[in-house]
């Protein structure tokens, strides 16, 4: 739905996950297809946990925008606390970071661990608080707020923003 450029760094993964719920009202979910599950390294058995993580992320992003949770969810901190992360140190420059712990050589770690690493890096980079969910109750898509003042409200000004402004305009006439 959004014409915005993707969120920076690892937040692009988080944005893609949150935006797998294509339509809040109908429940259309791109994670229902094997191809889209494969994008996140998920199996059908992983879906309940992935959806719980997605909705907890959405609630946190709504909070960044000053809105209450869209529904009762497991707090994001509880879900991420179980994520296996490791501290990495680059031998060339000594830069340190957090990375998902991998159970298999060459693996990328669980989705929860990859999300936890992305959130941790966004905290360090100062980008986490600008990562929000659209305030439109029939949308709530994730977007990165690049507005100068950091007060963006909609994932798309042309769609969600225009609808909200039209509703306000029509309410004045009634």
Quickly list its features.
single chain; alpha+beta; two-stranded antiparallel ribbon; two-stranded antiparallel sheet
Shape type: globular
Q: Largest sheet at a glance?
A: 2 strands, antiparallel
Mean of pLDDT: 87
Instruction: State the helical fraction.
Output: 40-55%
Q: Distance between termini?
A: 30 Å
Annotation, overall tally of beta strands = 6
Structural class call reads alpha+beta
| Unreliably modeled segments | none
Counted by DSSP, the helix tally is 6
Describe this structure in words.
This protein is α+β, with helices and mostly antiparallel strands. The chain has 6 helices and 6 strands. The chain has helices at 11-18, 34-39, 47-64, 76-81, 111-125, 157-173, and strands at residues 21-23, 28-29, 85-89, 96-100, 131-133, 142-144. The mean pLDDT is 87.
Give a short overview.
The protein is α+β, with helices and mostly antiparallel strands and 174 residues long. It has helices spanning 11-18, 34-39, 47-64, 76-81, 111-125, 157-173; strands spanning 21-23, 28-29, 85-89, 96-100, 131-133, 142-144.
Write the layout of secondary structure elements.
Blueprint: H1 11-18, E1 21-23, E2 28-29, H2 34-39, H3 47-64, H4 76-81, E3 85-89, E4 96-100, H5 111-125, E5 131-133, E6 142-144, H6 157-173
